[in-house]
Design brief:
single chain; Elongation Factor Tu (Ef-tu), domain 3; Rossmann fold; Ubiquitin-like (UB roll); OxRdtase_FAD/NAD-bd; 2Fe-2S; FAD-bd_FR_type
């Protein structure tokens, strides 16, 4: 989740006060927050929060999965990993401390245990900072469903890169129904399995795949591999769920082949040129129109806007209802122009 955008007017923001910072690895930390009035935050295990952060006099937005559990509502937590070019993530790791306040939109996201079909037997597979929604789901189940059967498979480069290592070990020791499998690429310690996670290792580690539910989060290639491993074993893909904050890829072959159209936003008295290779979000941001692009992957729904007239193609309709789609709403980050457009934000 490394995506940002500029935005002028952000609705439904709640102030969150940082109350704790835990250094997880050399390049990752967990931040715990409470609301300014100490009221609990209502969310589902696996969901994310979009934070508004000022970086170098620019207002940016960033989506982070919650690593805490709603069964312990006294605080919420996110876990951030430093990434090359990550303006918000790196800024927060460099500057965010207990006592600081951030504003955030209410939790959201369809990748959660409540809304996705699931069985009582789960496999939670994650890599790197993808651990965050998976550990939220695990914590929730361990608090609320004692009979749940959880296999938690986590991949990292080395033991030093294992995020929440102490917490994972604690959960493994405290709960007979939480089986931890750590896979590292190099320098394994006792109990680790040396990777990478391939189809053969996947089958060896999870021989009883049928009847389970898979939740996975991590780099795009990692999740694609897990999906292919499961599909090859005739897994019921209704119970396969993945979270992805990878920026959507344009359908157009290249900007050289793009066709130019006019995009109008009458409510703001603005118009701009949009190429068929560009997303609506790119052009709306360039025109300084008030749109949030927190995930840029067609997942969070923050860039929802309405196409009043014109033709578009969209790669994602996540978070949009049938009524939204019928009314012309699209996700700007995942939508490209196929004619002149009139839009509303």
């Amino acid at each position: 989740m490394n995506q940002t955008s500029t935005f002028a007017q952000t609705p439904a923001l709640m102030p969150l006060i940082c109350i704790d910072r835990i250094e997880e690895t050399a390049d990752a930390a967990t931040f715990a927050f409470r609301t300014h009035d100490a009221k609990p935050v209502d969310y589902k295990p696996g969901q994310f929060v979009i934070f508004q952060v000022d970086v170098a006099d620019e207002q940016l937005h960033r989506a982070y999965s919650l690593s805490s559990t709603p069964s312990r509502p006294e605080h919420v937590a996110i876990t951030i990993k430093r990434v090359p070019g990550g303006r918000v993530s790196n800024h927060l790791l460099d500057h965010l401390k207990p006592g600081h306040m951030l504003r955030a939109m209410p939790p959201a996201g369809e990748f959660n245990l409540i809304d996705r079909p699931s069985t009582g037997k789960l496999v939670l597979l994650s890599a790197g900072s993808g651990i965050t929604p998976c550990i939220s789901i695990a914590r929730w189940l361990l608090d609320t469903t004692p009979q749940a059967d959880i296999q938690f498979v986590y991949s990292a480069r080395s033991p030093a890169d294992v995020i929440m290592a102490a917490e994972l070990a604690r959960l493994h020791d405290a709960h007979d129904n939480f089986k931890l499998i750590r896979i590292v690429d190099q320098d394994p310690v006792e109990g680790d399995i040396q990777g990478p996670l391939d189809a053969a290792l996947f089958e060896r580690l999870i021989p009883d795949l049928q009847g389970r539910t898979i939740f996975t989060c991590g780099p795009a290639g990692y999740m694609q591999a897990i999906e292919s491993f499961a599909s090859a074993r005739d897994f019921d893909m209704k119970y396969f769920h993945k979270e992805s904050f990878v920026p959507a890829t344009a359908n157009a072959a290249s900007a050289d082949d793009a066709i130019s159209y006019e995009l109008q936003a009458p409510q703001f008295g603005k118009s701009a040129r949009i190429d068929s290779s560009q997303s609506l979000l790119q052009v709306l941001e360039s025109a300084a129109l008030p749109v949030i692009g927190a995930c840029r992957a067609g997942v969070c729904g923050s860039c929802k806007c309405r196409v009043v007239s014109g033709e578009v193609s969209s790669r994602s309709t996540a978070t949009l209802s049938e009524a939204d789609i019928a009314a012309g709403y699209v996700l700007a980050c995942s939508t490209q122009a196929r004619s002149d457009l009139v839009i509303e934000i």
